[in-house]
Amino acid sequence: MKSYFGTLADGAEVSSWSLENGGTRLTVLDYGGIVQSLEIPDRHGRYANVSLGFGSVEEYVAGSPYFGALIGRFGNRIADGRFTLDGESHQLPRNDGAHSLHGGPEGFDRRLWQVEPFTEGPDVGLRLRLTSPDGDMGYPGTLQVRVTYTLTGGGDWRIDYEATTDRATVVNLTSHVYWNLAGEGSGSVHDHELEIAASRYLPVDAGLIPVGEPADVAGTPFDFRTAKPVGRDLRVAHEQSLHSKGVDHNYVLDKGLTARPEPAAVLRDPASGRTLTIATTEPGLQFYSGNFLDGSLVGAGGRTYRQGDALCLETQHYPDSPNRPEFPSTVLRPGQTYRTTTVHSFGV
Ligand code: BGC
């Protein structure tokens, strides 16, 4: 179940962990908590890896657009990499133009996590732990992070995120799997059908920072309230699509922030029959239609990844929340425990 995957420049070994349960096969790296492969069957029982990834640790280190990785401390963007908390201003490294993206240039996606396997009743899984020191990537507080990947007896992949701090800070953890239900490297996902349970989304500026109020999806290319092919409206010349070269927007889930995971999105590949249903406690979902894949990366299966060859559905709080007091809070204080859950269910 545990095997050698590679060695980092500083000599540290990277291991891969493979688990299987309820018909789902998952391979995870301790480097970045990366889902290196996730295999599920099609309607004829044929397995495919439905998550983009690389075959070597060198490729992940050299320049991965967060393939399969755990994202922290803060998923998505913080405007100008700056925020003020309890009257104190914090400057983060800017790694996305003027902004901070996905926790900065050395985020949790580039750390070696401590991994421990477990079996609990019908479930199997991995517990991933990381200590992020005070000041790490500009964020205040020592953050103790625990992420649990569970493969349930029914084949669901469940992620439980937990964090505590010794000083007030902001946290927004997510997972950055690039989905292609026909199999990684098999071509575009534009024929996949997608449904998102959100009547509103967050319009953005040219730097993909939310501006103004949430807007209605009705009458826009961003309307996925009823399942439709991902590619149907991608070329509609809407001002918002020009900023993002497709969709790269946060959806305000109708269910809001919930104590238990509730349905947020359903993705279906009509050709293979494979479906993915995502349920989450989080109030937001970043739908990124793989716009910046440009054919320059070669995946684990030896094929190049081009624009639209995968899509991401990242459950999270809204982008730039630390600067938007009207958004659900991302502040974590000593004595509190950050807890969110996202469940991925597969079917045919
Ligand atoms: C962001 C995109 C970004 C991608 C890869 C997504 O979460 O929304 O703008 O290009 O991650 O970095």
Can you describe what's shown?
The structure is a single chain. This protein is mostly beta strands and 348 residues long. The protein has a domain at 2-185 and 290-347: Beta-galactosidase, Chain A, domain 5 (Distorted Sandwich), CATH 2.70.98.10. The chain has helices spanning 57-63, 239-244, and strands spanning 2-7, 13-21, 24-29, 35-41, 47-49, 69-71, 77-78, 82-85, 88-91, 100-101, 114-120, 123-132, 143-151, 157-165, 169-170, 174-176, 193-196, 200-201, 215-216, 228-229, 248-252, 262-268, 275-280, 284-288, 297-298, 304-305, 312-316, 331-332, 338-347. The strands form eight sheets. Strands 11-12-13-14-29-23-22-17-20 form a nine-stranded antiparallel sheet, with no helix packed on it. The protein has a five-stranded antiparallel sheet with strand order 1-2-3-4-5, with no helix packed on it. Strand 1 (2-7) and strand 2 (13-21) form a beta hairpin. The chain is globular. It starts with a strand and ends with a strand. The mean pLDDT is 98. The structure holds beta-D-glucopyranose. Residues 65-66, 208, 248, 286, 288, 292, 312, 314 line the site of beta-D-glucopyranose. Residues 65-66, 208, 248, 286, 288, 292, 312, 314 line the site of beta-D-glucopyranose (BGC).
